[in-house]
Amino acid sequence: MLLLTCPCCGVTAEETEFHNAGEAHLKRYGPGSDDADYEAYMFARKNPRGVHFERWRHAFGCGKFFHAARCTMTLEVFGTYSAQTLAPPAEIAAKIKARRPEWEGYK
Amino acid sequence: MSEAVSALPHAQYSGLVDLAEAGLTGMITLRGDLASPVLAEAVRAATGASVPEVRRIEAGESGQAAWMSPDELLLIVPYEGAAGVVEALETALAGEFATAAEVSDARAFFRITGPQARDVLAKVCPVDFSDFAVGELRRTRAAQVAAAVWREEGDVWSLVCFRSVAQYVWDLLATVSKPGGEVGFYR
Amino acid sequence: MSHRLSTGGRLIDRSRSLEFTFNGKSMSGYEGDTLSAAMLGAGQVLAGRSFKYHRPRGVVASGAEEPNALVGLGEGQRYEPNQRTTTTELFSGLKATSQNHWPSLEFDVGAINSKLSRFLPAGFYYKMLIHPRAFWKHVYEPIVRHSAGLGRAPDAETRDADRYEHFYAFCDVLVAGGGVAGLTAARAAARAGKRVIVMEQTAHFGGRAPVDGEVIDGMPASEWVDGVLAELHGLENVTVLERTMVAGVHDHGYILGYQRVADHQPGADKPRHRLWRVRVGQLITATGAIERPLSFAGNDLPGVMLASAVRDYVVNWAVAPGKRVVVVTNNDDAYRTALALHQAGVTVTAVIDARFEATGDLPAQARAVGIRVAEGMAIRQVLGSKRVSAVALCRFDSDGGAVAETLECDAIAMSGGWSPVVHLWSHCGGKLTWDDARAFFRPDPARPPLGHDGQGFVAAVGSANGMMDIVEVLSDAHQTAQGTGEAPQAEPVPEAEMLPVWMMPKQASYELRAKMWLDPQNDVKVSDVQLAAQEGYASVEHTKRYTTLGMATDQGKLSNINGLAILSDALGQAIPQTGTTTFRPPYTPISLGVIAGEAAGPVFQPLRRTPMHAWHEAQGVYWEPVGLWRRPYCYPQGEESHADAVIREINQTRTSVGLLDASTLGKLLIKGPDAGKLVDMLYTNMMSNLKVGKCRYGLMCNENGFLSDDGVVARLSEDSFLCHTTSGGADRIHAWIEDWLQCEWWDWQAHVVNLTEQFAQIAVVGPNARKVLEKMGSDMDLSREGLAFMEWRDGKIADIRARVFRISFSGELSYEVAVPASQGQAFWDAALKAGAEFGIAPYGTEALHVMRAEKGFIMIGDETDGTVIPQDLNLNWAISKKKDDFLGKRGMERVHMVSPDRWKLVGIETLDGSVIEDGSLAPLPGVNENGQRRTQGRITSSYYSPTLGKGIAMALVHNGPERMGEEIAFQGKDGATIMARIVDPVFYDKAGEKQNV
């Protein structure tokens, strides 16, 4: 059972206080978008072996959504950060790079 | 106002700790920019308390202000005056991006008192209570439902949950407070 | 015969005798006994029968690793099967029954399986029970089912009389194991100021050291242990728990501890078990090692025990396993058992040592007291039927063809060396390394389990780390826990090298190998594993499942290493190449009760109650669960059936006035400068142009365009909307809105506040509804014009603050009144009183459903199933064409969503007026590409309508709205065909006049 730190209220809590909300940094494609973009937005989900970015909600705590950078193999949490971002911020990328030099960066 | 009753009027139990329902309590959800001086002034006017730091609860002469989220406070005031406080807040915060809503009747409020209070809470909340200071507040879960707990003073703790699950939370706390269930972890 | 010695026993109190029964037979033991010690002390060696062959079984071990001595414990509400006698503390009045035999333990019909063992080899289920095919269902399966299962399950109707609980704890260091290694580590960490928890699975600390007579820091080990414990108990930062087993090690330092608070005090007013849910910075496993059995023919007979266990019984409980004991070993440690027996006055017939020569200190001590040591020898076969009577010996380096000698004995103490307990290290991914010199797997410190920060969070110390010498054990524990100063000092006792022995004699014939047990509980023998290898089972995981080796309730604590050594040998590869099976939590079985914790009886699950819940209950309501809510389904009066109650409630409401508790409806306040923009995105309708004081029915879809929720929106002010959701949808929709606000439109200025529970919401419904409210007294104009249909007002009713919505889900004149939850009951009472003259009566959710179906209103979850778009339900009018965007709009543009071939909502009337079964399908001739019967429609709701006096239904039918009047055949679950007609879904008051009066 994971241990996560909510960047919004600073609490480090066990997984049961949180709800996973799927992949992070999805771009919404609305009316007028072409089928391929819409399909990717709705259905194409990453399932990497290694570094992954997720959305979580501190459902039993402050109620805020946030992002987590995590290794799907070792479950190592590289860091958590604001939901109001379109890509992992530089300091998170640096933390990942320090632990996973072979990581090619967020794509 | 006629026949307002709290979720579990006068409920009391004594076991490892003393449990009591706190009775009708005025509560207001206030959402907005917690750094705003206008909001701070409105909170002071409503409760006498300053805007609390993260996960803290502050007391004033007419109420308390509890930090619930980066943009949310819970104001605790006398039950009868709550509607008036909401109106005053709305007036004071006109023009601000802020929302005040009365939630007095949406909550149940319990007091947990005694030296074993932390041992009892630790049976239902996945929280480290070892360095939990007076005036600190934690939103978490109490077994299967959401709750907020804070330390009023030494051995006096408060717990707030949704009204619909008041009976569940009461039964839960009473069950884990039964004599014989001493743990002695927090000393 | 096993028996109690006249003196000694460091853990028993001879002044306190405890009576107990085994299979109804009265026996007595002493306080401090385990059940196994007490049974052996009373001469009861036979403890049960094995799973497959029903062979007689006696206790082998003295702790958690015991495979054989499992009993049913207690009775009635406290009965529990498969309890280990070795870990059961004796108490007065204990009742134990043996398992897995019929009719009795002494005479078991099932033992015939043992005679048939040639026909029940590894994998026999798969080989024998498949031909002829038809036999499986009618012959084999019933037999297998009858003989399956170990022990007897508690009576399904019986409730566990005990209570259980959880406890969440946090610490820097958790030490698993209260032996001298664990205590050394705990003390070092505690002195450094760390928060420490020590968990010891038994009731006693010190582990093997006091039994083996070790001397630590110049004092007997038990004295040293008492001293350390006293220090730990005195420290505020330390919690010491006995009778608490670390059951599992999980991700990110999450440890489960199983505390048996009151197993030894049944009936005490205490929780029986407590589950410790601990987050640790570091876990130190000081779980010791487990002795390995030796594989020789007849090693499963009662009386054959582990040498260390024999020593435990003698030293701890003054119980000897027999009068004449043979010790068989491949190492020096077993000589300690010979010496302990000798010292207790028990005859040690001989020590059979497989090694060519035994020259270490311990063998020398044994020889010095006159114990015969037979070097280079092996047990060829154990003789006896229900227990050991003699052993036939042979040369170890032989095939066992020649019996060298036969020795009479009534017990055998065997030692095949030791295996570190690596379970906890391995639970969360810690890897092992093979130690060739000592022939065991031990933790590989370079590959520990990783925590949230990617760093190892488990360290093994002492024997659990492969340290077999007391001096090594203590210094390892001290250093790993970063102790300052000197480690505890001990006297080293040098031991000569052991000889890995995986079966004896070394080249044993098939006849002997077919009598060598690896797993005595599941009856897996050396020959079974060899057969599996021969048949091509190369993976240890496959071999385990094929042979059932290690799959018994002891999870192979004694059998695993021996089994995989045999497998490796048969495959012609080294042991590390074969690898181990996976170690999974829990270490030993834990009770189901402790997993549930406090969640039993009234707190099994949170029940959400409306403010009028108690009133409904007092009426004898029949409840319907809606999410975690309980809503009144109907209110039967006296002997009235539910169906009749529903009819009465509908008739009362349609003809006069009814009362509905609608408090569970979700009520979300959306407020802020961008509130209008937000509700326009959330709903398919245009909402931002709603006038203050007005209400509008709205639909919410997910991004696929599928209907997700519906409800009435009221505009409260220029910048605020009150959005009603379905009862089950409030929390989900609240989270959904927060998600969009926080993660997509975070620059929009709108707040959402969940006010669901702030209000009791009461619907006053029926032609007399207005009269009731007016009689209750109000400062509002509730007339047809004063509060028109789809409007709301704030004011007072019956002197209670109220917000009145004039909306209708039944088609009748209807007011939904929201009052503070604390005054919900007061309002309800006032409405009942005012409505008495109109015969006012409450109605439940079923009446609500029937009335909405009569009106053709859809219900989320009935007419929708996650694949239905609003257009399917003819709700196009609620989809704004003016808006550029709303959630779900893009999804609705897809080819399949705009296809003319979709199933659409219609009404259905059976030709004979009967009520069609909900869910019935309308079949078509032929099959689809998946070979399934083609269909053209499905019933989504179906009721008896008392208003119309016949069955009415709604259905999704292919091109339905274009087929009005057409007859269509449905098929019920029983296969019968029901003829029906496609009709308009609005069955009642199509013009909507009644709600508008």
From TrEMBL, chain A:
It holds the Pfam family SoxD. GO terms for biological process: tetrahydrofolate metabolic process. One of its GO terms (molecular function) is sarcosine oxidase activity. This is Sarcosine oxidase subunit delta.
From TrEMBL, chain B:
InterPro entries: SoxG, TrmE/GcvT-like. Coiled coil: none annotated. This is Sarcosine oxidase subunit gamma. It comes from Pararhodobacter oceanensis.
TrEMBL record, chain C:
One of its GO terms (molecular function) is sarcosine oxidase activity. Residues 612-883 form the GCVT N-terminal domain. One of its GO terms (biological process) is tetrahydrofolate metabolic process. Keywords: Oxidoreductase. It holds the Pfam family GCV_T_C. It comes from the Bacteria. Gene3D superfamilies: 2Fe-2S iron-sulphur cluster binding domain, sarcosine oxidase, alpha subunit, N-terminal domain, FAD/NAD(P)-binding domain, Probable tRNA modification gtpase trme, domain 1. Residues 904-989 form the Aminomethyltransferase C-terminal domain. Residues 515-597 form the SoxA A3 domain. Belongs to the GcvT family. This is Sarcosine oxidase subunit alpha family protein.
